[in-house]
Amino acid sequence: MLTLFHHPLYASCRFVRLALGEYGEELQLIEEQPWMRRKEFLALNPAGTIPVLLAEGDNPLVGATVIAEYLDETRGAFQRQRRLMAEDSIARAEIRRLVDWYLVKTESDVTKHLVRERALKSLMGSAGGAPDSGAIRAARANVRQHLKYTSWLAATRDWLAGPRLSYADLAAAATLSILDYLGEINWSEYEAARDWYSRMKSRPSFRPLLNDRVRGLPPASHYTDLDF
């Protein structure tokens, strides 16, 4: 069984969990608080970042996109009907572009700020400091751009990167699911994105994410509702 060091409010970790779920892999989860910099965890990844997957032979694989490429080579290439990468090189480039959009750009513009200020600082105690209301306002102002873009993709394509479910959909769903947990999305304004996200929430791979709970921060009331 594979082991994943993760945190439930890190989009990159959710992305890996969704990918493993789509490939039908059993997974042991170990929740890691990277700001604690545990010696045992740093022995696996001196950078102290998550996600880290202990793959076959307990070899540590570090980073969401590294893990995704590994899964494509070891699972996707042999499960063509379920493969999360395209066969065509141009289509693969588009999938990678959108994975970067959600796990890097949306993370930088929106997700990391809302997660840090609304959740992680309280978990870190006095070391976290007080929430920065300015950072929260800026992140909330940026949400609209990313939801509009997601709606455009969902309205013009069968799935976000093309005709089939791909890593692009998993990256977007992982990111938006955290904002949804925090109640930061008004889905009524983004009909196409809402319908796409409802399809994603209904997939078996998504069920473990709907069971996630963070101490002291319950999810929005609609978070587990598949028909929201």
TrEMBL record:
Domain of life: Bacteria
Domain named GST N-terminal: residues: 1-79
Alphabetical list of InterPro entries matching this protein: Glutathione-S-Trfase_C-like, Glutathione-S-Trfase_C_sf, Glutathione_S-Trfase, Glutathione_S-Trfase_N, GST_C, Thioredoxin-like_sf
GO molecular function, one term: glutathione transferase activity
Limits of the GST C-terminal domain: 88-220
GO biological process terms, semicolon-separated: glutathione metabolic process
A matching Pfam family: GST_C
Signal peptide residue numbers: none
Entries under PANTHER family matching the protein: GLUTATHIONE S TRANSFERASE D10, ISOFORM A-RELATED
Subunit structure: Homodimer.
Name the record gives this protein: Glutathione S-transferase family protein
Species of origin: Chelativorans petroleitrophicus
